[in-house]
Task: inverse folding
């Protein structure tokens, strides 16, 4: 089979990966010299902990397995099974963590409630004050800024794979045939559009104005090296308010009894933090849903996150070296893992995995391949 994959973010690259593994011919087309969208701007969290039970959790767990397998073949992905800790303070937060470990699927997520001493054995950098910590052993991480490059390097070893950067796909010109902005037509047996959060132009023309997918903008930052290992990813209890796995009467009580801090509520924030291969910390995030998005990054969220992190680490944060924003596409029905739609003869659109796209992409691509009978 000949496949054209449009877009070289993680979703496109995992589709190319699946197709090449299955012995198909793949041409992957990217309008930039290299992808520069959400797939490079994210935390690199392979995040199982907060997923909704059912399809979302199953997809994340399958994807986590695939990441580990691919990470074994491509060490430059930087896959590590680092797990995550969410320190909790006070009875209201503790009750949410207790409800999480009582879930029927808690073992599949590797949830454990740890004492502060146990948490510091797992992650000695957490020297701040907290009463307990929710451990999720199944969480993992990769290096997002280099992951696509590492995957491509491996794909290029196959004679079945061709990468065409610097070309924007503009039209569908026949069954499974697309034309790029160089005027070249690419004929195949199937086309998969993995065009991320670019929902206008070609995608709007093909899928129509009612695509059930929206855009979300996030702010992030990265510090200089911490000078010591941060052995797990770290989240704060605002992540309880954000991720569906924590929905419970205990969470309702937390929201009622201790609302989010003003800045965190205003910018729809949670703390997520992961250490990069160079020792720096990637820290975020905010969520902006209303268009038009701001074109600048604002400081208040960074001040808030710095305060939360310094509290957990019990030390000052290293200098912030980079700040950036990114946009992802999210299904408007957040319970859907991804929007997969046939938009033309032989052409499928796969977008909208939201804030779990890095996590779920290998399993999303596997499902596409299975459903389309590749
Ligand atoms: C700040 C931030 C943090 C996040 N953190 C996490 C996380 O820790 N864990 C997690 O699981 N998820 C995370 N996500 C979500 C995740 O990054 C995205 O869901 C995922 O990267 C989407 O991948 P994609 O390939 O669909 O899109 P993209 O990475 O945006 O790639 C789409 C590509 O398609 C190309 N393209 C578009 N149109 C055309 C065209 N017509 N012709 C040719 N090329 C085209 C674009 O140039 C782009 O390179 C985060 C997202 C952001 C923004």
Result:
């Amino acid at each position: 089979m000949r496949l054209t994959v449009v877009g070289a973010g993680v979703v496109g690259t995992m589709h190319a990966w699946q197709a090449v593994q299955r012995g198909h011919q793949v041409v992957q087309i990217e309008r930039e010299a290299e992808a520069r969208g959400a797939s490079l701007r994210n935390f690199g969290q392979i995040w199982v902990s907060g997923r909704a039970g059912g399809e979302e959790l199953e997809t994340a767990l399958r994807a986590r397995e695939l990441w580990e397998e691919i990470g074994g073949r491509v060490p430059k992905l930087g896959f590590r099974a680092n797990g995550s800790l969410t320190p909790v303070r006070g009875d209201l937060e503790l009750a949410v963590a207790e409800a999480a470990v009582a879930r029927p699927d808690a073992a599949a997520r590797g949830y454990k409630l740890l004492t502060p001493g146990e948490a510091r054995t797992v992650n000695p950098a957490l020297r701040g004050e907290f009463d307990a910590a929710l451990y999720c052993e199944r969480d993992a991480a990769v290096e997002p800024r280099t992951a696509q490059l590492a995957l491509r390097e491996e794909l290029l070893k196959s004679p079945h794979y061709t990468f065409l950067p610097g070309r924007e796909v503009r039209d569908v010109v026949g069954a499974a045939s697309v034309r790029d902005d160089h005027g070249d037509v690419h004929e195949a047996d199937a086309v998969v559009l993995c065009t991320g959060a670019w929902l206008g132009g070609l995608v709007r023309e093909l899928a129509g104005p009612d695509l059930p997918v929206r855009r979300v903008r996030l702010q992030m930052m990265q510090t200089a090296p911490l000078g010591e290992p941060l052995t797990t990813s770290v989240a704060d209890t605002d992540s309880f308010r954000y991720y569906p796995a924590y929905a419970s009467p205990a969470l309702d009580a937390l929201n009622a009894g201790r609302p989010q801090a003003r800045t965190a509520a205003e910018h729809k924030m949670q703390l997520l933090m992961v250490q990069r291969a160079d020792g720096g910390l990637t820290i975020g995030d905010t969520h902006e849903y209303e268009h038009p998005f701001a074109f600048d990054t604002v400081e208040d969220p960074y001040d808030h996150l710095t305060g939360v992190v310094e509290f957990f680490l019990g030390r000052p944060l290293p200098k912030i070296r980079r700040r950036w924003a990114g946009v992802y596409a999210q299904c408007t029905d957040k319970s859907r893992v991804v929007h997969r739609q046939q938009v033309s003869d032989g052409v499928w659109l796969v977008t909208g995995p939201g804030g779990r796209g890095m996590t779920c992409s290998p399993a999303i691509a596997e499902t596409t391949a299975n459903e389309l009978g590749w």
Remarks:
- The two ends are 7 Å apart (CA to CA).
- The longest strand covers residues 320-331.
